[in-house]
Amino acid sequence: MAMNNINLLRVKGVTTVQDMHDRIMDVKNLLEQRLNLEEYSDNVRPVTLNFSVVLRICLLVGLSDKSPRRIDESINNLVLSRTPYATTFFTKSDIGSMFETLLKLRYHDVDADWTAPTLVSRAIGREILRGREILLKEGAIDEWLTYMPLRGGHSVSAIPELNLHIGEYENGMSAYLDINSREIANTQILVAGTTGSGKSNLISVLINQIRGASSDTHYPVNFLLFDYKGEFSDPANAAWLQKFDTDSSAILNPIERPLPFTPFKDFTGKPINEVNLYATELSTALSAISRANISANMDTRLSNAIINAYKSKGFKPVTFNEILENYKTLLPEKQQDRTDSVISVLTQLVTNHIFESEDKIDLLNNCYIINLGRFPKDGAMAKAIVYFVVSKLNSIYESLPPQAKNDERVELRHFTIIDEAHYMLDFDNRPLRELIAVGRNKGMSIILATQNMESFKSKYFDFYANAQYPLIMKQQQQNDNVLKDLFGVSGNSLQELKQVITGLQKGELITKDAENMALGIGKHWQKIKVTHLI
Asked: What's the pLDDT score for residue 406?
């Protein structure tokens, strides 16, 4: 079949070769060793190459080899995965036309059905592996290092398509979550599933897909993950980080070293009323986080201490120690030797020293994983870290212009993942609510994961009402009212849905079928088998 009449890179169903990431890891390591210095100063991170970049380099090198091509065992024996290439793989820097030309040049005399996605997939995979073989030869890396895709000026038309491939429906069709088209109301994702249901793998798939589609484009989407169980921060799981286009330098461990930024707002040049409101909110938050029995007098005193601390600093960011010292000076003379609930909470925060007094990193322009694995999950320290970091993100978002848009897509700048989120949903968590509200206009997304679907509908906030994609995995308990609201079902349909959720296996989930719900026909849900990644 003549290839010249076929757009090879637009053949539907083209997928990667199985275990391709593992196969090119040696090339990735060699390239990074060649690019990086032996040592870096604090808060300066070495280069970590995106897998798409390495694959693209290998493909270019492979196609540059002039050896004759034929359909032989080296192609026919390749096992394909079900994972498509990232949507930007063939469009980055307009390189697709060159790949297309080189493919047709190398295979121009090969008579085969080039409309078959399996053949195109295997041919592309074979060329990537050919490039790998060439680059592993002595001296080849230095010879080819002159080709590196560079980021140039931003073009709104280049906003990546974040259509996340998370698995398969029951009928074998690929399951996608579109999180940045103009038609999508918001980008919030909720995950509910009991221990052992596959939540961690699902979170990994979501991160992998977002990063794979964006990290080597002009609009990279970075992430911040609160790792409650410590599994993403575990050195034994370092290979996971490679799937997110980052490495161990992304891990922040507040047990070992303070988080390298201040959690407090900068009110320099701002009206005193803003400081007063912030002080009241902060006082309420410290009470809720610690579950301390704080009287009205203590609450007022704490608010005044926060205000006084800011005044003494010229309205620059304060520290917990400065708030504590100001609080003590406001105590009646007879009480200054006593430890009340506020002093107890502030002393914990000061003693644990979980934050620096100034910003040393940019939370948005890199990926970070905060290791909470050694903190009691329901304790004051873990809650304080999540609360104040989310509050910090909100402060950063406030100063950003609206996200870029084109006719089809909107920019997604950053996403925050809170695993075990139920620990942060049982009180009036204003920063978390603001994060969701701000995200609609500033290109921010949030992924909340919890064990029970009921956690997302508290008396303080209905997180379901603000979520584009509720993903329900196996549950220990099911809430009829939540299911009715989510899926618009009742009677026999409700009972059928509950049975389906009860029968979910590890790695399976139920999500809304928005089209059927809008039409009021058929099942209002779809079952998805999530791709196994970790």
From this structure: 86
DSSP state of 355: B
> What is the structure's pLDDT at 152?
44
Cβ-contact 48, 241 below 8 angstroms: no
The DSSP code sequence of 459-494 is SS-BSGGG-SEEEE---SS--HHHHHHHH---HHHH
Q: For residue 449, which of 198, 231, 239 has the smallest C-alpha distance?
A: 198
16: helix, coil or strand? Answer: strand
Residue 181 to residues 38, 221, 411, 437, 471, Cα–Cα distance (Å): 42, 15, 9, 18, 19
Buried b (16+ CB within 10 A) or exposed e, 153-164: eeeeebbbbbbb
- Helix/strand/coil percentages in the chain, nearest 5: 45, 15, 45
Segment holding 141, helix H or strand E: helix 140-144
DSSP string, 218-270: SS--EEEEEESSSSSS-GGGHHHHHTTT--GGGEE-TTTS-BSS--SPP-TT-
The angle at the Cα of 164, spanning 475 to 7, to the nearest 5 degrees, equals 150
Q: How far is CA 451 from the centre of its chain?
A: 19
CA separation for the pair 399, 265 (Å, rounded): 12
**SS3 sequence of 149-194:** CCCCCCCHHHCCCCEEEEEEECCCCEEEEECCECCCCCCCEEEECC
List domains and CATH numbers for the chain: 8-144 (no CATH), 162-167+187-256+367-453 (3.40.50.300), 272-352 (no CATH)
CB-CB neighbours of 364 under 10 Å: 15
Other CB atoms within a 10 A radius of the CB of residue 351 amount to 11
Q: In a 3-state reduction of DSSP, which class is residue 450?
A: strand
Bridge partners of 224, per DSSP, are: 368, 416
Of 240, 204, 171, the C-alpha closest to 529 is 171
DSSP-assigned states of every residue in 380-412: HHHHHHHHHHHHHHHHHHHTSPPPPB-SSBB--
For residues 222 and 210, the answer to whether their CB atoms sit within 8 Å is no
Q: Which residue has the tokens 């359909």?
A: 71
In the predicted model, residues of the chain with pLDDT beneath 50 are: 148-153
pLDDT one-digit tens code per residue, 5-27: 667 677 777 888 988 888 888 99
Distance CA 253, CA 258 (A): 7
Describe the strand order of the beta sheet including 163-169 as a list of residue ranges.
174-178, 163-169, 525-530, 508-512, 469-472, 189-192, 444-450, 414-418, 222-227, 368-371, 251-252
